[in-house]
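Q: I have 294 residues here and want to know how they pack in 3D. Can you give me a structure?
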Amino acid sequence: RFSQEVALNIYQNRRHRNGLYIGEKEISNLAQQHDIKLEEIEMRSRSLLNRNMVGHYKFAHKSILEYFLALESMDNKRFAQKFSFEGMDQTRVFMQEFILFEKTLPFFKDERNKLEFEILGKRGKKRSELTDKDIQNITLLDLPTLEDVQILYPLKKLQVLKIHGGTIDKLNFLTFFPSLISLTLESLPIQQINEIEHLSQLQKLHITSCPIRHIDPLRDFTDLRELALVDTEISKIDTLRNLSQLWHLELVDNQIPPFTGFDKFKELKYLRLNKGLLSERIVKKLKRNFPKLK
């Protein structure tokens, strides 16, 4: 546990110290808390911690630090939710391995957990017979509710994710799924979607009954094909002007004022809006420009 505490201290103070190390005073304080003498640290942990000439302690290899950070993420949900993987790729790998066997595989095998999923190249396999390889090859997952996002981490090939409820209020977990092409979020206490910017291949996004307030992160998603924003707290949609490839658009029960940029969506085939979001003039123009529009 001591080494894990050292790793946690190094991670939390990395920017302040401008490096991945802990000072002699700080490690001395940690050692006292764990009733360990510094001499014992140097003798017993020489393969883990190295001390330089100015008294800074550093793990012998960065992967050792990341291993202990992955363990901390398993033990501490709050830490895991806020953890930044910037420069910590090996931590992600360790977490995926730990969680696969401790959480994800048991979750999928438990028939009490209602869910739908598809495995690449396999159909009809019994949940009780699922293997770790099957889990890593899941491409579609539909969950009626989700409380622990960590069970998703090992799904390396996930392309379609649907979550219809739960207590998740942050989307940090999306950094694990750069290949996601379709995302559905419903009835979640999510207020911002900044992490969506990591989903460079996203083509379909449905958000329903989530208190998000802006969609600025979608500004660069010029290849997005389908977008549904229903029952949110969004009040501005100027960002939509950049999404010229949209063919399916739903804007219902939001706080959006009348919008005049729909004629920019040259590929539009389906449009669902609240009454009052378009003026009669714009309606006539849309019907003229998009005769096949539903």
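Q: Anything worth noting?
A: The beta strands are 49-51, 57-59, 116-119, 138-143, 160-163, 182-186, 204-208, 226-230, 248-252, 270-273. Residues 89-109 form the longest helix (21 residues).
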